[in-house]
Amino acid sequence: MSLPDTPVGSFADKLTIETPEQTALDFAVAGIGSRFLALALDTLVQFAVGLLAGIAAGLLLSGLSISSPKASLWTAAIFVIFYFLLYFGYYAIFEIVWNGQTPGKRKVGIRVIKDSGRPLTPAESIGRNLMRIVDWLPFLYGIGMLSAILTKENKRLGDLVVGSLVVREGSFSDLKPTWQSTDLPFGTAALPSAPLGADRLSAEEIALVESFLNRRLDLMPDVRSRMADQIFLRIKPKLTLTSEHTLSTDRLLELVALERRAASHYQ
After folding, report:
1. Domain boundaries, the chain
2. CA distance 173 to 168
């Protein structure tokens, strides 16, 4: 990993990750300002949902406390669990379902990933967000803000514990495809008749494929073949392959990238 000499928290911070497939991916580290803005937006969502739930709970409990005191206790317990999930499970649930993003992060254009460039596992997302209890101390994320200021990659304690970092979403979309198809005309006409399922790949996985395709001509044949096989094995479970796909691994990665480009309307 390497970082240039840029001010901490700057949007210019860059992180270069060498993947296990020996492909370098560049990420723009999210600044403290963008993370705080995403947090503010998520807090507004939580507050709005919590307010509506509080009004509903008040109306429901006021009726149950008279007609069924025991039922009112169970209802109160359910709402306590709901508020815990709202304020602590909210981040983990969204980051698991939305591949490292919450509504606030998606609006701002940032995403949580592993230090290796891979998505967080559900357990890592849960662990990262449970640390918010400590990051919040003594108030308003005091410890989390201090940690972000003192670390080069703007990490709060939750990031340090699970080995994650927050990057700008543009890190993936800014990976400009410069390669050309090796044996078919470039464009949607080169796509196979049956979809490969490239739309199921994450932004990190597509970035990995594009990065390999951009630099493959600079690689020795044996290294190129080995890297293509490693990347293909990583994304294969998400693809839909039929018996007609008897092309080389290198060529299949091309088709995956072409299919994703066609779906994203950039060629």
Report:
1. 1-174, 188-264
2. 10
